[in-house]
Task: structure prediction
Amino acid sequence: MDVDSLYQEIILDHYRNPRGVGLLPEPHGESHQVNPTCGDEVTVTVTADADGLLHVGYEGQGCSISQASASVMSELVEGRPIAEIHRVEAAFLDLMRSKGSGTPDEEVLQDAVAFAGVSKYPARIKCALLPWMALRDAEVKAGIPVEGGSYE
Ligand code: ZN
Result:
């Protein structure tokens, strides 16, 4: 199996069996993001616990890229220290800006490496970034300090 097929399999697996679906009951921050060009919607809820760990829950609908991205994101950030999550966010943003030429850091991005090919298609980058934009916005609303640039 070549890398592109493998990446497609990972995305389809997350789309068909999404991880971490469900909004948190008492979120510290919540964000609803829409990608009008594709019709994708994602709502992300976050809480930060006393140990500085982030908890995330989401709901969404739309194309396989957007929903798989939400599933991968939740798996990557759930229950992890907020400082580490900023590293993951920055790595994913870099990958999406790489125009297909990025060499993703598998250790940091895990299943999110599967979106490397998506970065070649500007219209699909918005789909892949949508849940991450919602995460960032929910973090801001929760009063969690964020790092790095805008997702626009
Ligand atoms: Zn989409």
Remarks:
- Strands lie at 29-35, 40-48, 53-61, 80-81.
